[in-house]
Amino acid sequence: MQKCGVGGCSRLAVAYIPYSGRNMCRRHFMDFFERRVFRTIRKFRLFRPHARVAVALSGGKDSSVALIMVKKLASEKKFPLEIVAISVDEGVGEYRRSLLKNARSLCEKLGVEHVVVSFKEELGIAIEDIAGISREKRESTCTYCGVFRRYLLNKTAREMGCECIVLGHNLDDLAQTFIMNMLRNEPDRLVRLGPKAGVVSHKKFVTRVKPLIETPEKEVAVYAILSGIPLKFMPCPYAHEAYRSEVRNFLNMLEENQPGTKYRLLNSFMVVKEALSHSEGNPNECIRCGELTNAEVCKTCELLCKLGVRR
Ligand code: SF4
């Protein structure tokens, strides 16, 4: 077993940090991890003191760690925040049931108000029905699910008086999405990425913030295990992740051979985003439901029409 390599510490290491070449014990790793997240929050000014913030809590490792960090910031770092958690129930059977159970018990443990909104109740259609129709249309269920989830999170957070939504996106998510957008020739989508995503000024838009954006996924997983968060390996049965998996494997291989690759991608992304941010226009209100859109009708209404739920 390796020993911790921080300042003469002789405890057993629980993590190896390849881009700095150091082993770390539990205490030093957790301290290193928390400091970096708090630095990200300060550097990108993710929160205003006393803000009411909503954590988008799926119950998986990333959003659970994001909630723990925001709660720690509010309690230990003397940065007052009012925190609520919102989970979206798409209706994905046992997969979602077990994640919601994790989400509920974490909120109880941390004393955080927890709200669950469901596709079925809010939109009139659950994921099984969406999957059936999208299969017939030879489309990915995730395309519908992602649009509906963002719609419900924005609407619920706004109705609960929250000024931002905390997402658990980590460094790997950012690096993968950046590369995928470039490979698909969708550079305009890049403005929605980054530590403060989709910053448009409209009273109906709730800014999305990402405190884990500078933290590699493996380190989030280690922190989750050390914090007693159950890691969920059961994938969503509707996942169409073939392309993302290829990009993930490619980036992991590069990171293995060239440690720091994902950080270099993050830095390149920030330069590109800065240049693109000037082209981001303000949204309109959808003529059907009143939520935000860049067109006349929002994507949610358009997709619900396609599914036959709305006319
Ligand atoms: Fe929804 Fe796709 Fe995620 Fe499943 S994998 S929860 S269908 S976005």
How is this structure best described in words?
With 311 residues, the protein is α/β, with parallel strands linked by helices. The chain is built from 11 helices and 10 strands. Strand 3, helix 2 and strand 4 form a beta-alpha-beta unit. It binds iron/sulfur cluster. Iron/sulfur cluster binds next to helix 6.
SS-based structural class? Answer: alpha/beta
Molecules bound to protein: iron/sulfur cluster
Q: What does the largest sheet look like? A: 6 strands, mixed
What share of residues are in beta strands? 5-15%
pLDDT below 50 for ≥5 consecutive residues: which ranges?
Answer: none
Name the helix and strand elements from N-terminus to C-terminus, one letter apiece: EEHEHEHEHHHEHEEHHHEEH
Kindly provide the radius of gyration, computed on alpha-carbon positions and rounded to a whole number of angstroms.
Answer: 20 Å
Query: Globular, elongated, flat, extended or rod-shaped: what is the shape?
Result: globular
Chain-averaged pLDDT: 90
* Lateral arrangement of strands in the main beta sheet: 5-4-3-6-8-7
Gap from first CA to last CA: 63 Å
Counting DSSP H or I runs of 4 or more residues, the number of helices is 11
Helix content: 40-55%
Number of strands: 10
